[in-house]
Amino acid sequence: MVRTKVEIKRIEDKAKRHTTFTKRRQGLFKKAKELVKRCDAQAAVITFSLAGNIFAFGHPSVDSVVNRYTAAPEQDEEAEKKGEDGVVDEETKEDEETGMFEVPVKDMDMEELEKLNVAMEEMKKKVVDRINGIVSSSKNEEDLGLP
Amino acid sequence: MVRTKVEIKRIEDKAKRHTTFTKRRQGLFKKAKELVKRCDAQAAVITFSLAGNIFAFGHPSVDSVVNRYTAAPEQDEEAEKKGEDGVVDEETKEDEETGMFEVPVKDMDMEELEKLNVAMEEMKKKVVDRINGIVSSSKNEEDLGLP
DNA sequence: ATAGCTATGTTTAGTAA
DNA sequence: ATTACTAAACATAGCTA
C-alpha cells in the first residue's frame, strides 16, 4: 500500500521508529541547510536518537551558534504556542511547574551561593553522565541482535 | 506567476529574503516537532535571522539538548565499556560528603533525569542572577564615591 | 542501518494583503 | 513582521532490497 494520511504521534514499532527517525532527520538537516543558504542566516540543529547517536549541523558551526545563543541577553524563546502539534511546549511548561528545588536563593549570601553553584555544576555533570550512560546501555542492548 | 524550480542560493532582495526566512523557519520548527513526537527523540533547533532575532526550539528543552551535546563524550563513538551504569558511583559517594544534594541520580530513569536537568537549569539561572545582583549592588556602592 | 521506489500528503515561491 | 492563496515542487510512509 502507499501512503495514507499520517497522524503525528509516537511510533510504537521500534524498527519503524528508527527508520522514520533516519529519514526525517535527513529531511530536517536538508531544510536547515536550505534555510541557511537561501536566507543567509545562522542556524544549528542537534538531534539525539533513542539509540544515543548524536547528529548535529550548524552554520557557520554548531559551537558558534550555540555560544551565541547562550550568550544572548534575552532568549526570546519564540517557540510557538499555537498548539498545532505543540505538545512539547506543554511538557516544558510542566517541567517548570515541578519546582524540584525550592531553595531560598534570595536570602543566601555570596559564600553560600558560590558553594551552591559549585555543587550544582557537579550534580549537573552527574546527571548528564547518567543520561549518557542510560543511552549507551540501551544502545548496546539493541546491538545484540546485529551480526 | 506560480512557482518555478528554485535554485538554493542566497536571495538578494532583502524583503523577499526575510519573508522566506519566516516561512522556512516555521517549516523547520514544525519538522523538528514532528521528529521529536513521532520518533521519541531529543532535538534542538536554534536560528538567528540576519536581523538578529533569535528563535529556538528544543525538547525537552533547548538547554538540556545543548548541554548534552556539549557533554557528549565523543561524537559518533560506539558504546563500549564506558556505557555501564557504574560510571556515576564514585561521584555519588563524593556527593554524599558535600551533603547539598542527596538526590539518588543512580536510580532515576530517563524521564526523571530530564525533569531534573530542566529544573537544575532554571535553578542555575536563579543562582547566577542572584550572584549578579549582589555584584551589581556592591559595585554601585563603590561607585558612589566616584565622579 | 541506509537506499530506491511511487503515490500522495505537505511545503513553499510568488504575490498581495 | 506575519498571513492567505494556489499550483508546482518537495518530502515521506510503506515496501522492497
UniProtKB/TrEMBL annotation, chains A, B:
<dbReference type="Pfam" id="PF00319">
    <property type="entry name" value="SRF-TF"/>
</dbReference>
<dbReference type="GO" id="GO:0000981">
    <property type="term" value="F:DNA-binding transcription factor activity, RNA polymerase II-specific"/>
</dbReference>
<dbReference type="GO" id="GO:0046983">
    <property type="term" value="F:protein dimerization activity"/>
</dbReference>
<dbReference type="GO" id="GO:0006357">
    <property type="term" value="P:regulation of transcription by RNA polymerase II"/>
</dbReference>
<dbReference type="GO" id="GO:0000978">
    <property type="term" value="F:RNA polymerase II cis-regulatory region sequence-specific DNA binding"/>
</dbReference>
<feature type="region of interest" description="Disordered">
    <location>
        <begin position="71"/>
        <end position="100"/>
    </location>
</feature>
<keyword id="KW-0805">Transcription regulation</keyword>
<dbReference type="GO" id="GO:0005634">
    <property type="term" value="C:nucleus"/>
</dbReference>
<keyword id="KW-0238">DNA-binding</keyword>
<feature type="compositionally biased region" description="Acidic residues">
    <location>
        <begin position="86"/>
        <end position="99"/>
    </location>
</feature>
<protein>
    <recommendedName>
        <fullName>MADS-box domain-containing protein</fullName>
    </recommendedName>
</protein>
<dbReference type="InterPro" id="IPR002100">
    <property type="entry name" value="TF_MADSbox"/>
</dbReference>
<keyword id="KW-0804">Transcription</keyword>
<feature type="domain" description="MADS-box">
    <location>
        <begin position="1"/>
        <end position="61"/>
    </location>
</feature>
<keyword id="KW-0539">Nucleus</keyword>
<dbReference type="InterPro" id="IPR036879">
    <property type="entry name" value="TF_MADSbox_sf"/>
</dbReference>
